[in-house]
Amino acid sequence: MSIIRVMLVDDQTIIRDGLRSLLEACSDIRVVAEAGNGKQAYELVSEHRPDIVLMDIRMPETDGVEATRLIKKDFPETIIIVLTTFDDDAYIINAMTFGASGYLLKDIGSEKLIEAIHDGVKGNIILPGRIASKITSRLTQTGTSKTELQDFTEREQEIIRLLMLGKSNKEIAETLFLTVGTVKNYISQIYSKAEVTDRANAVLFFKKLGL
Questions:
Q1: Cα–Cα distance measured from residue 158 to residue 54, given in angstroms and rounded to the nearest whole number
Q2: Where are the domains of the chain?
Q3: What architecture (CATH level 2) is domain 143-208?
């Protein structure tokens, strides 16, 4: 059984204690580090290389949005799921733009949080309904790209639909009988056409197109 290594980032010790107790009750999850602000989070990601970071937003020194940007810039393989009490549109858009794989509110149930962690490891985007609606609405109002679905080749559209289902590069390759390298090349072309740089923003872009 593969262990999912998680780091907790929250300026409230009581929140981190509660999350640690909850997560370590799961046999396949281990909390490897805790941080009280975004600056410390960046340093500890460098040291511990967790699979997933549960990231609060409002914290002293460096907030969760900026910490997400810094971590994804230097450690792009790290999966960041925002876990906060704030559903402000700007926070959501900025966190997802900087590469967060999900945005959850702290009123989420324990089973849903554990499910979100497992989904994150699989490469899925984690957005509750009301958060997804906010993003779709905001992108519709502010999006500037003129790219349409028909601008993508038939093969690219096949890969896009598998991306939207949360399939990994390996799973896409197996489904379409391609090599992983070929899939990566197609995904790079898709990102270029959509004017995005990561999977999270690609999914948001194609949600805007109605997929």
A1: 32
A2: 4-140, 143-208
A3: Orthogonal Bundle (1.10)
